[in-house]
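Ticket #4471: structure output looks truncated?

Reporter: J.K.
Steps to reproduce: submitted the chain below (538 residues) through the standard prediction queue, then opened the result file.
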Amino acid sequence: MAYARQLFDQIPDPNIAVWNSMFRGYALSESYREVVVLFFQMKGMDIPPNCFTFPVVLKSCGKINALIEGKQVHCFLIKCGFRGNPFVGTTLIDMYSAGGAIGDAHKIFSEMFERNVVSWTTMINGYILAGDLVSARRLFDLAPERDVVLWNIMVSGYIEDGDMVEARKLFDEMPNRDVMSWNTLLNGYANNGNVEALERLFEEMPERNIFSWNALIGGYAHNGLFFEVLSAFKRMLSESVVSPNDATLVTVLSACARLGALDLGKWVHVYAESHGLGGNVYVGNALMDMYAKCGILENAIAVFQGMKTKDLISWNTLIGGLAMHGRGADALNLFIRMKNAGQKPDGITFIGILCACTHMGLVEDGLAYFQSMVHDNSIVPQIEHYGCMVDLLARAGRLEQAMDFVSKMPVEPDGVIWAGLLGACRIHKNVELAEVALQRLIELEPKNPANYVMLSNIYGDAGRWEDVARLKVAMRDTGFRKLPGCSLIEVDDAVVEFYSLDERHPQREEIYGVLRGLVKILRSFGYVPDLTGVVPAT
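Returned output as attached by the reporter:
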């Protein structure tokens, strides 16, 4: 657009078609403010617009919430005689709706001489955006013509309001449902957490496209069902003629990262490369995240280095991955490269940087980065940043300073901060502060027995067995049990989940047999289990 603008400025007397081309060009490049500025420049030169001018300008006013300028354009188009144009009227309704002026939008709608299905749809959508489902439904029932787009928008309105019963009822009344109608309801069930209804509707669909499969896979991911994400992806590859797109692969890679399914993640990497998605920035970011969370940092670095286009998430993902695996120096060096590349950091960037300082014990550097985040980058610290700072100080043994930092925080410390302090108290054997931290945790998370277990371990390290016994009674009195430890292992292209003393696996006899054999081998080499913190028998 910069070159187009240079050429435009050299034209001595551009006609309205040239002006409209500039408006469309800026709008297509999402430079909406430039559209508005250029329009008022044209108006100041007394160049008469035509019916193609106002829709682009009004849409741009709506996009940047420039309601005052939009009203000025509205007055001008009335003077120019375009008040009765249905296309212009529909764009006015859209602009006022986007600006929250639903009353003005309805006034335009009421005064329109000619209303088509697009006008009705735009007005109904305006009411939905304003959260007025009653008025939206009233107009929907009055609409003389209802196409599939209008039906889908009304169904979407109920979905966004969380009313899946009414959404399904209206969906069942639709005379001509297309695949996007099914996908709309499918996404509704996914986003509202009704997985069973999501699965039933998916099986009912007469036709499925990529958005249908993505709704199912994304619905599983949205509800934390990562095993089902992988199963649905494998089913898609074996049953469907539809090929996965970048959104599919990003969701699957995220599930692989959560489950530690490295082999499947590698397969997806090869699939992306061979199907033209290797250069996709979203897929690249998901690959880096998967490799980092699976502990294969060199692969994450290789993906980063091979990316032709990097966005903020790309830098943040690798900085966070390096910090998470204790490679703090590399994370800090990458942060310097990021700034040299002209990429502005955000709050997530600094979470990675503060974590890197924590792993390296760089307390003063961490404090300096925290101050830089606020003063140099104008980023308001969130609870996560304060948590990182408390963790940094506590792990370095500065427990009193950490407590002082907590007391001066402008936000209330959450359970994560107090749990981090409790863990640091065990490392540095500070029983008094541990008791304070536990008391705060009990107030915040009275039903979480893991907090009692942590302080019990601290008492055990200090040999205070009576206090250990007292805590075990208190934990039992809560009525809740600590969840057993869980491990995930990838075997034969599937992820298997194991709990401590698990008896569910069909091959449990063979598994425990191998485990007993490993213990014998370890003991033959002199292995002695660490019983520190184990309560002695009474």
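Triage note (M.O.): checked the attachment and the full token line is present. The two ends are 81 Å apart (CA to CA).
Status: closed, working as intended.
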